Structure formats: C-alpha cells, structure tokens
Amino acid sequence: MKVERFRWWDVAEVLGIEADLFGPEQWSAAMFWNELANSHHYLVVRDQTGGVLGYAGLAVQSPAEAWVQNIAVRRDAQRRGIGRALLEALLAEAEQRGVGKVLLEVAVDNAPAQKLYAMYGFEPVGIRRGYYQPSNTDALVMMRDDS
C-alpha cells in the first residue's frame, strides 16, 4: 500500500469510485478540480499496478481548524486498513501544520465510518439536517480537538 499525493490525472479514476460508492450524491470532476486548485491536501492509496484504491482530502480553513473533505475506499479494497492509513496521513498533515481542531461530516447511518473516526478521538458535535442530497440524509458533525 502506497500513500501519495493526489494528482490531476487521478480525477478520472476517482470518479469511478465516487459513482460506485455514492451514486447520485457523488462529487463531480469540477469539485475535485476545485479542491486541487485551492491547494487542499489530497492523497491517494495505490495498488501495485498504480491503480487507485482510495483517496482522501483535508482543507485547512485557518491555522486553528481543518476539515476532512472525504475519505473513500474502493469496495473491493475495503476492510484492509486503507481508510485508516488515509485518515492517519490527514491527521499527520494537520499536526504538521499546527492545526488543533479537525472536523468532518459523516452520514448518520454510516456506523463503520463513525466507529473509525471515534477511534481517532473524533466526537459528535452536531447534526446537519438533510445535508446529503438528493437522499436528504443527515450528517453527523464530528470533531477532534488537540488544541
């Protein structure tokens, strides 16, 4: 497993993963391009052939706060520690930048992801009603505060 920087040429492959995992709530190519254009910290995990197994992003909003934008792992690569490796890499980047608070949103019905985040010190701090569209699923806001 190799964690490395997300590059513009990864967008096409990542879109396939997005479509499979998130369906109508998937991010568009333009959304990923915007993240990269704004110099947000994005990573991919590759397999031995160079294919993308998973990806994640972190947006540093201020010296005090960052948001995990997304963490996704291809279905056939789940339950192998890839999501954990991506989260650890994002948290290491936040620490390196001196960011104390890291926040994220996760679907209220995504118990496995919530469990992973809780293992890394994230705690629920709020709910965003109807956040995910078009399903109208609520998002649980979680925060890790190391400040």
TrEMBL record:
Gene Ontology CC terms, in alphabetical order? cytoplasm
Record-linked Gene3D superfamilies: 3.40.630.30
Which residues does the UniProt record annotate as the domain N-acetyltransferase?
Answer: 1-147
Is Transcription one of the keywords UniProt gives this record? no
Chief localization class?
Answer: cytoplasm
Catalyzed chemical reaction(s): N-terminal L-alanyl-[ribosomal protein bS18] + acetyl-CoA = N-terminal N(alpha)-acetyl-L-alanyl-[ribosomal protein bS18] + CoA + H(+)
Q: What is this protein called?
A: [Ribosomal protein bS18]-alanine N-acetyltransferase
